[in-house]
Amino acid sequence: MPDQQLVTPRAARLRRPSWKDTRLVVGVLLVLGSILLGSAVVSAADDRVPVYAAARTLVPGEKVTEKDLVRVDVQLAEGGPAYLAADGTVPGGMVATRTVAKGELLPQSAVGSVRDADVEVVSVPVDAASATGLAAGDVVTVWASRGAGAGSRRPGGAPTRLGEMVVDEVVQEQGGIVGGGSAVTPVRLVVTGDAVEELEAFIHDDATITLTLPRNPGGTP
Q1: 58 near 139, Cβ under 8 Å?
Q2: Are 105 and 187 in contact, with CB atoms under 8 Å apart?
Q3: What DSSP string runs through 166-220?
Q4: Where do runs of H (alpha helix) occur along the chain?
Q5: pLDDT digits 0-9 by tens, 90-125
């Protein structure tokens, strides 16, 4: 029998990856996509800026200090309103020039000096019991009730809520008596311009003006 020559199998050689390899191209694109997505997320986070929001409801004429505000980091749209930046000290002597709800970002236009606020200081004969313990700077809810007393020029009814106002001063003097016979204490209130006329109408009618602290539990007087 003739000698048979054994054939030795050849090992397959690894081929160097080519740019024409679809799997390689897809892998590179996935890596690049992940990098771009991560960069976009980081960039968006870096666009946030610190501004102030109201820690509680602020009313016109009320002094605004750092304890009345809370810092929040937000991403602001271009061309939007300018908000009070929280990157420094809160300016002194600042008051609210309009009502700012709790949690609302504080626009720069909503704060300023007392001259910027559309307010007047009105001396109001307040029910003496409700004026007890009040001090300048307190924010109170003002209620007016037209009673059935001889001095009342209009019919009575349920108390009318005139809104929140700031106490400018509680006059330390002996109170008087209104038409209904109730003892009163003069209290100077910071009143927004559009509420002055209504408040003065109630005073002119010898209505009973009562103050409550709106940030404490409780309903109408």
Answers
A1: no
A2: no
A3: EEEEE--S---B-TTS-BEEEEEEEEEHHHHHHHHHHHHTTPEEEEE-TTSS---
A4: 22-46, 128-131, 193-204
A5: 888 888 988 898 899 999 989 988 778 888 889 999
